[in-house]
Amino acid sequence: MQQYIIRRILLNILVLFLVATMIFGALRIDSDNIVSKLRGGCASGGTTQEQFDECDRITRLALGLDGSVLSQYGDYMWDLVRFDLGNSAIGNKDPILDEIRARAPISIELGMLQILVALTVALPVGIISAIRQDTWIDYILRAFSILLLGIPVFVLAVVVILLSGRPPFEGTFFQDWFGPQGTYADFVDPFGWTKAESDPQQNIKNMFAPALIGGLGTGAVIMRFLRSQMLEVLRQDYVRTAWAKGLKERVIIVRHALKNALIPVLTLVGILLGTIVSGNVVLENIFRLPGVGDYIVFKIAQTPDYPAVQGVVIVVAITLVFVNLMI
After folding, report:
1. How far from the centroid of its chain's Cα atoms is residue 10's Cα?
2. Within 10 Å of residue 102's Cβ, how many Cβ atoms?
3. Quick one: what percent of the chain has pLDDT higher than 70?
4. Between the ranges 132-146, 166-180, 304-318, where is the mean pLDDT highest?
5. Residue 105 burial (CB < 10 Å; 0-12/13-18/19+)?
6. Within 13 A of 267's CA, how many CA atoms are on the CB side?
7. How far apart are CA 129 and CA 143, in angstroms?
8. What pLDDT score does 193 carry?
9. Exposure pattern of 165-192 as b/e (b: 16+ CB <10 Å)?
10. pLDDT band for position 186 (50/70/90)?
11. Would you place residue 64 in the very low, low, confident or very high pLDDT band (cuts 50, 70, 90)?
12. Which of 114-118, 130-134, 147-151, 275-279 is the least confident region?
């Protein structure tokens, strides 16, 4: 076991090295275009070519693009070893790691709530669909899961928001809980880490719609997988022996079949858990939740701010790799 863990850790380090190298290369393919967009006020009228060149030099220096490719790569990897993701290229030029740290609790809470919703819906649906195979209940539950698989969560989110502001839902509980919950300034820190006036009820309203919509989308994957695993386990000899002994159906399902069927399902849940940081980019943007996903959308649309994009991708890669290692 120790040798296996060591091999996996070394393999994960290699994966992170390759991911970091790919990010380094991808974001420097069109570095001239990025530098030209970040000139700022130098693009105003009457600017001479010398002033443009000076602006480019200053911008490249600020972004770490002034040296050779090898020297840039060496500085880049050394910063990653020290977990220094640099500063944003625009705005107040805040440290990227501080921005991610401030927004991570929102993304983590949303992701955990989605997993909770997914398991709450998927476990009973998957079990009932399997033990009542090829009955009308099975057909209805399978159609429900396939429908959720076929509709992207961002499409469902947009439909829900549009419906919430129209009759007969306008001014009702549906609009109050499924509509957008205000602006960034109105958002309440979920854990009360940064705001003394944290309101748990408002936080639940903020998270309810994206957690439910994202959880149903994730739950559809778990439903289908759990059903197939349950059907496979129910055909095993030890389950048939339990039936032959005359054990109750509840005992056979819970004590014998479900335990073994859940082993690969928990692996799937762990993988889905690893996508918490990156999986809610669209939902956070649609429902105006200032998490890591919304941060990356804002930074891409703004210029793009490539140091911020680079930092978020690195954090997502590290999260995925080590969550998979724990699984």
Report:
1. 25
2. 17
3. 80
4. 132-146
5. middle
6. 7
7. 11
8. 44
9. eeeebeeeebbeebbbbeeeeebbbbee
10. very low
11. low
12. 275-279
What are the structure tokens assigned to 324, written together?
A: 């998979």
pLDDT at 194 (0 to 100): 44
Among the listed residues 313, 302, 308, the one whose alpha carbon sits nearest the alpha carbon of residue 37: 302
For the record, the structure tokens of 108 come out as 């983590």
